[in-house]
Design a protein that fits this description.
By secondary structure, this protein is α/β, with parallel strands linked by helices. It has two helices and seven strands, in the order E-E-E-E-E-E-H-E-H.
Length: 118
């Protein structure tokens, strides 16, 4: 488990068997708590969307993002997109916490992956 702090973004690499890269991302000011999960990038950078959901626990969010990322790997392969599979989740109530600041901060976190995840 490695911690990388960039500005106010904190990236924690989680070792998850069967997944290439799983990052827990936290940024206090915006309230960002997120997970980016790259399942497989053999066919290209990971393609996948973001779910914003008020998960009851971190483990619940991790289980969901792993399932979604693996599904994106297979969807991308079947559709011959030239991309691998990944997904991300933001642990937040979309009705109350989906602020422009939260979304910008998450976008900055995705940018820091330098094209590994789209």
């Amino acid at each position: 488990m490695a911690l990388i702090v960039e500005d106010t973004l904190v990236f924690e690499k989680l070792e998850v068997e069967g997944y290439e890269k799983v990052l827990k991302i936290v940024e206090e000011k915006s309230g960002l708590k997120a997970i980016i999960c790259l399942h497989d990038t053999v066919l290209g950078p990971a393609l996948g969307g973001t779910r914003i959901h008020p998960y009851a626990t971190f483990d619940e969010a991790l289980t969901d993002v792993k399932r979604l990322a693996k599904g994106m790997t297979y969807k991308s392969a079947v559709a011959e997109t030239g991309f691998g599979g990944g997904k991300s989740v933001i642990i937040a109530d979309p009705k109350r916490q989906k602020t422009p600041e939260l979304r910008r901060t998450f976008g900055t976190a995705v940018d820091r992956l330098a094209g590994e995840y789209m």
